[in-house]
Amino acid sequence: MKKFSWRGLSIVIFICVTAFYLAPLAIPNLPEWWAKNKLKLGLDLRGGMQILLEVDTSELSVADARGAVDQNIKIIRERIDQFGVAEPSIQKLGDKRIMVQLPGVSNFEAAEKLIKQTAMLEFKLVTPPEDSKRVLDQIDLNITNNLSFFPALAELDKKDKVILGRDSLKADSVATGTGIFSSLVRPGEVDFEIQYSDVRLVQELLADSMFLQAVPMGYQVALEKADAETARSDRNLLVLSTAVELSGSDLAKAKVEYGSATSTDPRIANKPYVSIEMKREGARKFERVTADNVGKRLAIVLDGVVYSAPNIQERIAGGRAQITGKFTSTEANELSIVLNTGNLVAPIKPISTSIIGATLGSDSIQSGSMAGVIGLVAVVVFMLFYYKLAGFIADFVLVFNIGFILAILTAFGATLTLPGIAGIILTIGMAVDANVLIYERIREELDSGKTPRSAVDAGYKRAVVTVWDANLTTLIAAAVLYYFGSGPIRGFAVTLAIGIVGSMFCAIVFVRSILETFVITATSKKLSI
């Protein structure tokens, strides 16, 4: 009786746990604490994007390189959480690679930009116009002396005879100089301007290590951020001092705010901007910089792009500032996210980006569900035909077994993927294996003349050892797949392992309890098996 009580209690717990975690799938308007326990769908079922990244640790020491990937994963996770992507998957692959999966994301470009952004925030002084002109002249001279290292500019020189053939820039270039790089530049109201048609070439030059060597020491050439509303517009070019007055490490927090429509400042009037607050030491630095450079411009540079370069009107105490720029509300929010989460420890470069549409995910679910239904029906029909009433009991418990798999996946926050569905389908086929072994042994005991109750007792006693051996070896295989595999392989291993545990419990405990409680009585002479 005591043994039966423990068996019954375990079955009640089994059913209650399964029902608790499956309820959010079928019952709407549940309390939030309950409804949040909902099965997660993987990238291949829900659609989204997958990005494979590699961390560049070449500039780090051996000790720093070991923790760079883990730290970058932490920062990327924080960014994604603030971005609002539900149920992201971020995994470390090998020593230097990171796999990021974002199910359900729709703004692929924004998500990819947010993840890959280094977020190197720097405050640098803008050089006066006369110094900027002198820097451009020196760049022209250095490029002319080493023209073979700049094939794109060499072609431009050959095609346009330096500048005189470029009608759109002819007048401006005469005023700016006659060098090759200066032919791309024209004076603007405040800074130099780059025509939209030349922006790509200038961007490539700014990323070229040879061009960086052509820039005089102590100076940096940078483009201003593109206008989000008119992306195909011209861009401003600024000459900055390389000295970093403040950096992202001096920042305490950043948040998006909106300027009043009645504001007299056109940079924020009815526009989004990012309000930043410095740490104590950063506030002291900011106060000193603004006090020493009244009348000059201070550029706010993020990853080499100038977001804004306001004039310093007076000394600013308190460590508060604003980043205004030509960005939308979404871009302002993304900027605040990367500032709050900090710089990546080491640069990352994308290896591959895959985008999976929601339609493909829907098709995968339908195909997987159809395969599962067909497999379930085939098993149910076989068990009913071959084992009669005992087969019906095994089929009845099989439904609970499938529900248990989904419930445990939900309970542990696992993600159901297409390989996971394959694992469930395989489990359906394997779930009745234990029942088949036990039922065949019971048949042998009945053929030897034993009563139904004695046959069931003997059948379970002698078959359970074989059942344990067979399932333990499969569990070991699932553990190996999980340990050495990644992504979809792990999803398959998890569902397979849960299915094995559930099928063993169902066959050894659940089915036996039903047989002994509702089918076999003290006076039973036959057993439908």
List the helices and strands and how they pair.
Layout: H1 2-26, H2 32-35, E1 40-41, H3 43-46, E2 48-55, H4 62-83, E3 89-93, E4 97-103, H5 108-116, E5 121-125, H6 129-145, H7 151-160, H8 167-176, E6 185-187, E7 192-194, H9 196-206, H10 209-214, E8 219-223, E9 235-241, E10 246-247, E11 251-258, E12 272-278, H11 280-292, E13 298-302, E14 305-308, E15 320-323, H12 329-341, E16 348-356, H13 358-411, E17 415-416, H14 418-431, H15 433-447, H16 452-484, H17 488-519
Parallel strand pairs: 1-17
Antiparallel strand pairs: 2-4, 2-16, 3-4, 5-10, 5-13, 6-7, 7-9, 8-9, 11-12, 12-15, 13-14
Helix pairs in contact: 1-13, 4-5, 4-12, 13-14, 13-17, 14-17, 15-16, 16-17
Short description:
By secondary structure, the protein is α+β, with helices and mostly antiparallel strands.
